[in-house]
Design a protein that fits this description.
Protein name: PIG-L family deacetylase
Organism: Streptomyces rameus
Structural class: alpha/beta
Keywords: Zinc
Largest sheet: 8 strands, mixed
Strand order of the largest sheet: 1-7-8-6-5-2-3-4
Distance between the termini: 41 Å
InterPro entries: GlcNAc_PI_deacetylase-related, LmbE-like_dom_sf
Oligomer: single chain
Helix content: 40-55%
Pfam families: PIG-L (PF02585)
Length: 247
């Protein structure tokens, strides 16, 4: 029996200056692609984060009124580790984000504010490529981000944004989806991997509620496993993968 051919991942395009990452919760980016973000900011690129929620429903032992502000603080500290200082929260309710015009409008407004060439989001499909079911929040935000990349350039879809001083932005060239089972491209994780570890470790309250393992051991093992597995399709280098959609 012959082994199935491993399809190589292509390098993610790097001829851009500004990126905007849009996800549902604090820690979504740290579990998926902060090693890539560290490499981008090292290269002098501007990266901003937009989170639909504050992750207030993420820790069973903490009520949302306590959990939300705590996770917001941890997210800002986490972003700073990889060189990101612009972090916004849209205020949607954790766990019950609804896909629809309101979410698309909020994300389109963020795209108009930040004017990125690259937009990054998380897996918008029903599963993680097998039998592991994705969460409704991830699906809603990922799908809305793909749609909002086009909405941001059309002044007639959300005309109230122009009234708010947010002129259309047609400059999004790609949307890169992290955590996709249909990955097409990758970024070398080696230069940013240690900072990715420290970035995820900033979500200590969440990690301590999630696992009985030592947080650092858990984080290092998780990121090493995922980047090494991706690297098998990227010349043997630890890597972060993306499914790339062009516009």
């Amino acid at each position: 029996m012959t082994e199935a051919k491993i399809t190589e991942l292509l390098p993610l395009p790097d001829d851009w200056r500004r990126a905007l990452a849009v996800v549902a919760h604090p820690d979504d980016l740290e579990y998926g692609c902060s090693a890539a973000v560290a490499a981008w900011t090292d290269a002098g690129r501007d990266v901003a984060y937009v989170l639909a929620t504050r992750g207030e429903a993420g820790i069973d032992t903490l009520p949302p009124a306590v959990c939300g502000p705590l996770r917001e603080r941890e997210q800002r500290a986490s972003a700073a580790v990889v060189g990101v200082t612009a972090v916004e929260f849209l205020g949607h309710r954790d766990g019950v984000i609804e896909y629809g015009p309101a979410l698309r409008r909020d994300i389109a407004a963020a795209i108009r504010r930040h004017r990125p060439e690259l937009v990054v989001t998380l897996n918008h499909r029903d599963t993680w490529g097998g039998v592991v079911w994705n969460t409704p929040d991830h699906v809603a935000v990922g799908r809305a981000t793909l749609d909002a990349a086009a909405d941001a350039g059309n002044r007639w879809i959300f005309p109230e944004l122009v009234d708010q001083g947010l002129e259309p932005w047609n400059g999004v060239r790609w949307v890169a989806v992290a955590g996709s089972s249909n990955a097409t491209h990758a970024v070398d994780a080696t230069p940013g991997l240690e900072r990715a570890v420290r970035s995820l470790l900033e979500h200590r309250s969440y990690l301590e509620a999630l696992t009985d393992q030592d947080p650092e051991t858990y984080v290092r093992d998780f990121l090493a496993e995922t980047t090494t597995a991706t690297g098998k399709r990227f010349g043997g280098r630890p890597a972060v993968s993306f499914e790339l959609f062009g516009r």
